[in-house]
């Protein structure tokens, strides 16, 4: 039978998110594996959804890959169109799909420093780091082989993680992303990382 993933019932992720659970089942089946989402409870903040996929019979210390959606997108969208579950089953890694919070413009986003988000204070770097640590520890995943890839705003987030969280994420794949607002001038990673950037079908 497919493996059931019960995920994130802790309160240590202080995440300002406003994702609605309306219209989504508590558990649904996708590509033969069951997914279950749970809110990260906190007295101040509202619901946060994170989707996690772990192939059946995944060995200990397997890699972990974050797949990050774009501006105004969702974890569910990129999970459905990216096809990463097939890759995870074939190559043996776990996947985390974080959901962006709602910005001051009313759109889902990851806080990478856009001018329109100057008033938004959510710390997505800290959130990603704590989430990675939680998954590594609770699912016996590799600390050395934790990676991030993303589209658009998710690609921009990869660059921010490379600059500010290279001790947590080892390599990155950015699609239609870039460094934001002179970020390259302030980038001071604790270690160098490999990054692949894709902007078109000829890349």
| Shape descriptor | globular
Question: DSSP helix count?
Answer: 5
Structural class: alpha/beta
Radius of gyration: 16 Å
Q: Quick check: average pLDDT?
A: 77
Strand order of the largest sheet: 3-5-4-8-9-10
Order of helices and strands: EEEEHHEEEHEHEHE
Count of β-strands: 10
Cα-to-Cα separation, first versus last residue? 40 Å
Q: State the oligomer.
A: single chain
What proportion of the residues is helical, as a percent range?
Answer: 10-25%
Query: How is the main sheet built?
Result: 6 strands, mixed
- Contiguous runs where pLDDT drops below 50 for at least 5 residues: 1-48
The share of residues in extended strands comes to: 15-25%
Briefly, what is this?
With 203 residues, the protein is of the alpha/beta class. Helix content is 23%, strand content 24%.
Topology summary:
Elements: E1 27-30, E2 33-36, E3 50-53, E4 62-68, H1 75-82, H2 84-91, E5 94-98, E6 101-102, E7 108-109, H3 124-138, E8 141-151, H4 153-164, E9 171-175, H5 183-186, E10 194-198
Parallel strand pairs: 4-5, 4-8, 8-9, 9-10
Antiparallel strand pairs: 1-2, 3-5, 6-7
Question: Care to describe what's here?
Answer:
- The strands form 3 sheets. The chain has a 6-stranded mixed beta sheet with strand order 3-5-4-8-9-10, sandwiched between helices. Strands 1-2 form a two-stranded antiparallel ribbon. Strands 6-7 form a two-stranded antiparallel sheet.
- Mean pLDDT is 77; it is low at 1-48.
- The radius of gyration is 16 Å and the shape is globular.
- Strand 8 (141-151), helix 4 and strand 9 (171-175) form a beta-alpha-beta unit.
- It has helices spanning 75-82, 84-91, 124-138, 153-164, 183-186, and strands spanning 27-30, 33-36, 50-53, 62-68, 94-98, 101-102, 108-109, 141-151, 171-175, 194-198.
- The termini are far apart.
- With 203 residues, the protein is of the alpha/beta class.
